[in-house]
Each structure stands twice: as structure tokens, then as C-alpha cells.
Amino acid sequence: MAHETILIVEDDPKALELMTDLLTQEKYRILTAQDGPQALKLAKEAHPDLILMDVQLPGLNGLAVARQLKEDPATALIPIVAVTAMTLDRTEAEAMVRDCVGYIPKPVSPRSLIGLVPAFLQAGKRRQGG
Length: 130
Ligand code: MN
Description:
By secondary structure, the chain is of the alpha/beta class. It has helices spanning 13-25, 36-46, 62-71, 90-99, 110-127, and strands at residues 5-9, 29-33, 50-54, 80-84, 102-105. Strand 1, helix 1 (13-25) and strand 2 form a beta-alpha-beta unit. Helix 3 packs parallel to helix 4. Manganese (II) ion binds next to loops.
């Protein structure tokens, strides 16, 4: 399969490069953003099949970006996966459950990334009924 488009939102250039390389090898089309405003713009323009969202972003954090994406009908159906190294507090955990289809812990292990992405893409397709 593959050739789906994945938007990776990640402010750490090394982590971004690692995920981009791994998923490009898996034949996905990759778009990248390093902050929230960039992510919102790209999601709207390109309508990716999946968004991998770093939670710890400068300025607007990843959960706030996810909320905005869910509130906009143009991007509300795009599945979002939170990527985080931190233990979320209760409010953050509730936001994640509401707005994201799942999460991937950091540091990202290549095996779990490559294993989980197809499952998250499938879940997103089912939700959109197609
Ligand atoms: Mn970060």
C-alpha cells in the first residue's frame, strides 16, 4: 500500500529527520512542520492522511494544535497521533484522548513507528467511512 501522505510535526531537527527517513523508506509521502502555525497551514493545504504531532512544541503545544485542527471542519477528520516523551497531566491526557487516535512514546523506536503507522492510517480510514 503506502503512498499515503503523513504530516510530521516536530521541532527537534534530529527527531524529525529520523522519522522522515524511516517513513520515506516505507514509501509514505512526508510533509514536515516545526511549529504549530506551520502545521495548521500545511494540514489545511495538503490534507494529509495522518498527522504525527509532537506534544512539546515551542509556542502553541501539540495538543493545542490538535484542538484547533479538530475544531476546523476542513481538518477535523484527519487522524492525529500524539508523540511525546513526557507523562501527561490529567488535563493533557483528556485532551489527547479527545483529539488523538493514539500516541507514540519518545524516543521513537523505528520498529514501533513502522508498526503503528499503518494501524493508525487504517483507523482513520474506517472513521471516514472509506
Ligand atoms: Mn518537541
